[in-house]
Amino acid sequence: MEGKLVVLSGFSGAGKGTVIKKLMQSYDGYVLSVSMTTRKPRDGETDGVEYHFVSNEAFEDLLKKDGFLEHAGFVDHYYGTPKAFVVDNMAAGRDVLLEIEVQGAMQIREIFPEAVLIFIAPPDAEELARRLFGRATETAETVTKRLVQAATEVKAVPDYDYLVINDDVDACADALNRIIRGAQAVRDSSGECPEAEAAVQAGQDRLENQAGSGRVYTEYIQKKSFAGKFGVGLAEVIALRA
Ligand code: 5GP
User: Fold this and answer.
1) Which residues, listed in sequence order, are joined to residue 116 by a DSSP beta bridge?
2) Is 192 exposed, middle or buried (0-12, 13-18, 19+ CB in 10 A)?
3) For a FRET experiment, which of 31, 51, 79, 206 has its CA 20 to 30 Å from that of 40?
């Protein structure tokens, strides 16, 4: 049986990578697609692990050969998902995780309407700013660029299937697994699987009892309201830095 395609987006620098690592350590059957990028490696990043770091020429070469599933320009650089890895792993029955930004996510929705799109966000804009400032590898200019980028990205939150709040790594990874495997069960039973829906629901209730850690929003109106408040918070943080 073919694996599921899962898009995980979130503001850059908000701790999404840590949650994805936790998800893969805690549960079997997931593989993470390693993207290609033209940006330079940060301290501690290794070619072939976090990304395949390539020149503009090499990126454009693969693009010409139709080697990307999706690609996007983001803060001065190109990022893309090499096609072969995704196709091969889905065929082998693994659930493939794509950690990509919103333009790429929307391209994936077009090509794979059955993909599950999840947005991972910190509880509020102030927390995002705190996490970005805490990242010693970024210059002040890049942090501001990323905050401005986040203000654009947050508008796309309501278009994702799920919004998961990342205020506790374990709870967030647990919520992601429930969503993905729940969605899998729904699909496996041709759209009729009340047990899977109930499992997702039960997970939310339990997680909400833990002071809101790993909160999951699926209702359009809730996602829109979160995005609206987050956008206002970001505008304030950006204005303070200007
Ligand atoms: P960073 O430079 O912080 O590693 O990543 C910047 C942004 O690019 C993040 O939002 C990340 O999810 C996104 N990104 C990473 N790889 C890809 C990719 O292959 N395609 C797209 N569209 N976005 C990506």
Assistant:
1) 6
2) exposed
3) 31
Give SS3 for 50: coil
How large is the C-alpha radius of gyration of the chain?
A: 18
d(Cα 180, Cα 203) in Å, to the nearest integer? 12
> Is this model's pTM higher than 0.85 or not?
yes
Least confident window among 54-58, 91-95, 137-141, 221-225: 137-141
> How much distance in Å is there from the Cα of 79 to the middle of ligand 1?
6
Phi-psi category of residue 201: left, alpha or beta, with phi > 0 → left and psi -120 to 50 → alpha: alpha
Ligand 1, atom 5, residue with closest C-alpha: 12
CB 187 within 8 A of CB 112: no
End-to-end alpha-carbon separation of the chain, Å? Answer: 52
**CB of residue 104 inside a 6 A radius of ligand 1:** yes
Taken in order of first residue, the domains within the chain and their CATH numbers are 5-32+95-241 (3.40.50.300)
Beta bridge partners of 98: 7
Task: For residues 242 and 235, give the distance between their C-alpha atoms in angstroms, rounded to a whole number.
Answer: 11
pLDDT in tens, 87-117: 999 999 999 999 999 999 999 999 999 999 9
Alpha carbon nearest to ligand 1 atom 23, residue: 100
